[in-house]
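PROTEIN–LIGAND DATA SHEET

This sheet pairs a single protein chain with one bound small molecule, manganese (II) ion, given as SMILES. Inputs appear in the order they were entered. The predicted three-dimensional arrangement of chain and ligand is reported afterwards as a token string under its own label.
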Amino acid sequence: MPQRIGKQIHELLMRSTTIRLIPHQNPDGDAIGAVSALGQYLRAAGKKVEFFCATETPQQLQFITLAHEISHNPQIWDTPCDVIVVCDSGDPVYAGIDQYLKKNPHTPVVVIDHHETNTFFGTLNLVSTAHSSTGELLYDYFKANNIQITPDIATALLCGIMYDTGSFSNSATSNKSLSVAGILIKSGASIKKIVQYIYKDKYINVLKLWGKALANLSYDRELDIASISISLEDMFVSGVDEERANGIANFMHTLKDGSVHMVFREKTDHTVKVSMRTTKDTIDVSLIAREFGGGGHKKAAGCTISAPLSHAYETMLPILKKHLKKI
Ligand SMILES: [Mn+2]
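PREDICTION REPORTED AS:
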């Protein structure tokens, strides 16, 4: 961690009275964990701390200390604050606060983040791509500034590390992330609460919907694609909303068979949302998504197509063949 920036941020925060903490919109365990840990230490230092998120905090993240205080009422921006701290966001649009930063051009902005795409949009930027998560980066910040890590702060930081490393299974996992996790558990972090959040997140109606979708799983032998479809009617009958329905794309990706996994989901406007995943280094699914006006990463991408659900796969077939067929 760049020590000098860490010290400058600590000094700025200690000089300030009102501090506004921002996790990115559609927040995850790392974003909420980061603002929680910061909020707890700033409250202990006697600061007035406010939280704003452009979208609501998911129910399953409410176990994190102070998460219930995160407001998504934009009226908060009608009153000034001394400093804005944006966590786990590469740029203000991703954070969901672009318009609010433009309205407050003189308020200093602190950015604490680990994304490679970070644009250094803050007045002070604590950005390190060597860290697995904002949680791991904040651990270094707390240590460098001799800030006490209480059990609740430790839980918040560990939640970020576990979420972003896929519980120590993806490529962000390192010697450092594991050893910091060990120290946080020693400091009293509740791994039990975090595991409940990460793994105990299914509901009966969601599993019933998955059951329907998985019963119709189809496999294209020629292109080595496994795919499922979720109709609007199935979602309506099971009472599952879009956010919860999205989890099936991650589940599909635990499948060993198939080079590409696809999920087709009918939307209310009768277009079809397509999610694509691959683990093959030779395949770039973002190229396929882009041909349909979508985007994403090499290994995970998505697009929306205008076709009936029953014809969605066929509609995409020529483009899928173009990118996936071995000649
Ligand atoms: Mn993160």
